[in-house]
Write a structure and sequence with these properties.
Blueprint (H helix, E strand, L loop, with lengths): L2 H12 L3 E2 H8 L3 H13 L4 E5 L2 E5 L5 H10 L2 H13 L4 H8 L3 H13 L3 E5 L5 E5 L2 H8 L6 H18 L1
Antiparallel strand pairs: 1-3, 2-3, 4-5
Protein name: HVO-0163 N-terminal HTH domain-containing protein
Organism: Haloplanus vescus
InterPro entries: HTH_HVO_0163_N, WH-like_DNA-bd_sf, WH_DNA-bd_sf
Length: 170
Amino acid sequence: MSHHRDRIVSHVDTHPGVHFNELGRELDLATGQLQYHLGELRRADRVVAESLYGRTHYYTPEYDEWERTAVAVVRRETARDVVLYLVESGPSSPTAVADALDIARSTLEWHVGHLHEQALVEKRRDERGRVTLALAAPEETAALLRLVEPSVPDRLLDRFTRLVDNLVSE
């Protein structure tokens, strides 16, 4: 295997769910070069690609589909913050989560929608129709959180979104 492929597999192994652009930046590889090597690695079953919400994320083969999609979602800082809040606080109302994270309800709903689609968060309704957010698989989700640290560009995008939400809501 080439030096570049070894570097790619090593990086994907230590950063599961890394997306294509981040991988290229971190390893200082040109787009075409990275595409070529990832194609070869995928054909050799050394890496697995998972496309979700406009980004392609890469994993080593030991991750199952639920783990891959869960990691991809919690790589976004705000989604990760929502999950961390639910890990620490337990089932909570959307208002409590939005207030604690200082984000707009619309931002929360966007992230919760993705967390719900990927079976990380459940929306439970009581007899009066009030919603409570809860982790669908608390232990498995907490374990996956240890694998993920959002990239700097992802953090900047999420923080910019929060800033705009705060300005619009004022």
